[in-house]
Specification:
Blueprint (H helix, E strand, L loop, with lengths): L8 E5 L3 H12 L3 E6 L14 E4 L7 H19 L6 E2 L3 E5 L1 H12 L2 H4 L3 E3 L1 H7 L10 E5 L3 E4 H14 L3 E4 L2 E3 L2 E2 L2 E2 L1 E4 L4 E3 L2 E4 L5 H4 L9 E10 L4 H8 L3 E5 L3 E7 L4 E6 L17 H14 L8 E11 L6 E4 L6 E5 L9 H14 L27
Parallel strand pairs: 1-2, 1-15, 2-9, 5-17, 15-22
Antiparallel strand pairs: 3-8, 4-8, 5-7, 6-7, 10-13, 11-12, 13-14, 16-19, 16-20, 17-18, 18-19, 21-22
Helix pairs in contact: 1-6, 1-10, 2-10
The structure holds flavin-adenine dinucleotide.
Length: 393
């Protein structure tokens, strides 16, 4: 890429967590940043606009993400201490494992998880004593990751946005598309009415819309799935107190279920990491049925008997943007010198966002390398090879 001046003008499209951190990291390194979003920072239709996201370092088999998560922690803590709104709560993550979960942890250990974080093995009686709200009858192993915790997702977006604006960053609310390409470079992004925004470099961090913005190089490979999240009311009295004491929990058997008490008072959250049906993020009605709620309640009651009759409070239908192998997309556009693509979070990118932003900023401003496993070039072109392996997180 041609050398950029001391204070390059960079447009970041997408004010979800990946675009926000990238914009902020570019700004901290001297770039003149304009952030563009069709709907607003951390909005409800994107993937970053929920109340909670888990920060953890246990990754079943890929050291890259362990390291990216660990490197992100100081930035999250600094963001947390920059405001009176709590943004990170160090609740710890409790791993409730059965055969599949044990394999996952085994893979994390094989790639050095214990160099990255402290893990506490608990005997089942010990775990029952510590967290009496849990039914552990089918669990083979309990592991606690004490340094993990919960990020207040939407509030993180809003605080980053406030920091960006306070430091002179510009924000433009509009839906934009790549505009004219001149000799392997993008000159501008354009709105539907033709209004153009030019810059020296562009980052597209467009979450579930990334594939449709780049239909040839990304469209065939990224799958947007609906992910239902359910919230139940905590009971009052001793049962409610025991439940409120629980850390974030990851219940890893044949299915990977997870949840937590929403620190913002939204209730007891439960969701499955199983990929839902493919949807269009603009048109899906994002509602759940009474049968969906009943099915989740049955699962909930088995693990947390105190919640068997808990009133259902609300649902949130969120979206994952999945790559075929579960790795992210963090790369320069293969045909454009000044265009960078960031996304395909595949259900696990929130926690990594400060580091991803740092990597992209260093690539744009200093020509630094990006992880090969996150390249656009890794996507294969034959139908048979697509969507076959689901990288295990
Ligand atoms: C239910 C659920 C649970 C999750 N749990 C975790 C977790 O515990 N831990 C974790 O690390 N990760 C988790 N994730 C994943 C994480 O939330 C996502 O990977 C992350 O939020 C993706 O952020 P993003 O910035 O790429 O996308 P988004 O937040 O979707 O942002 C994209 C933005 O781009 C804008 N945009 C798109 N197209 C255009 C356009 N043409 N013009 C202008 N603006 C545009 C959109 O309006 C949007 O604001 C979870 C995801 C879901 C759905």
């Amino acid at each position: 890429m041609a050398a950029l001046g001391a204070s390059p003008r960079i447009v970041v499209v997408g004010a979800g967590i990946l675009g926000l951190w990238t914009a902020r990291q570019l700004q901290l390194r001297g770039a003149e940043v304009t952030l563009v979003d069709a709907r607003g920072p951390g909005n409800d239709l994107g993937s970053s606009g929920d109340s909670t996201r888990i920060w953890r370092t246990v990754y079943g088999g890929d050291r890259l993400y362990q390291e990216l998560a660990q490197r992100a922690k100081p930035a999250w803590l600094a963001l947390d201490s920059s405001t009176s709104t709590p943004l990170f709560r160090p609740t710890g993550v409790l791993w409730l494992l059965r055969a599949e979960g044990e394999k996952y942890l085994g893979r994390a250990r094989a790639v050095g998880i214990e160099e990255a974080t402290r893990l506490e093995e608990l005997s089942l009686p010990e775990a029952r004593r510590r967290w009496p709200a849990l039914d552990l009858s089918d669990v083979s192993r309990v592991v606690f990751e004490p340094e993990a915790g919960v990020l207040a997702a939407r509030d993180c977006c809003l605080q980053l946005f406030a920091q960006l604006e306070a430091a002179g960053g510009r924000y433009h609310q509009a839906s934009v598309q790549p505009g004219a390409w001149v000799r392997g470079r993008l000159r501008e992004v354009v709105e539907r009415d033709g209004t153009a925004l030019s810059a020296d470099a562009f980052v597209f961090a467009c979450g579930p819309w990334l594939g449709s913005l780049f239909p040839r190089i990304l469209g065939p490979y990224l799958r947007v799935t609906r992910q239902d999240v359910f919230y139940f009311e905590l009971p009052t009295g001793a049962a409610g107190e025991d439940l409120a004491e629980l850390p974030v929990w990851c219940d890893f058997g044949a299915e990977f279920l997870y949840g937590m008490v929403d620190p913002a008072g939204g209730g007891f959250k439960i969701a499955s990491d199983r990929r839902g049906s493919s949807i269009d993020p603009d048109t899906d009605p994002r509602t759940v049925t009474a049968e969906d709620v009943s099915a989740v309640r049955r699962v909930l009651a088995r693990r947390f008997p105190g919640l068997a009759k808990a009133p259902f409070v609300r649902s949130k239908v969120c979206v994952y943007t999945n790559s075929p192998d579960g790795h992210l997309v963090v790369d320069r556009h293969p045909e454009a010198d000044n265009v960078w693509l960031l996304g395909a979070g595949s259900g696990h990118a929130f926690k990594l966002a400060p580091t991803l932003g740092e990597l992209v900023a260093a690539a744009i401003l200093e020509g630094a390398d990006l992880p090969k496993s996150c390249s656009v070039g890794r996507f294969v072109t034959t139908e048979a090879d697509r969507m076959t392996t689901q990288f295990e997180r």
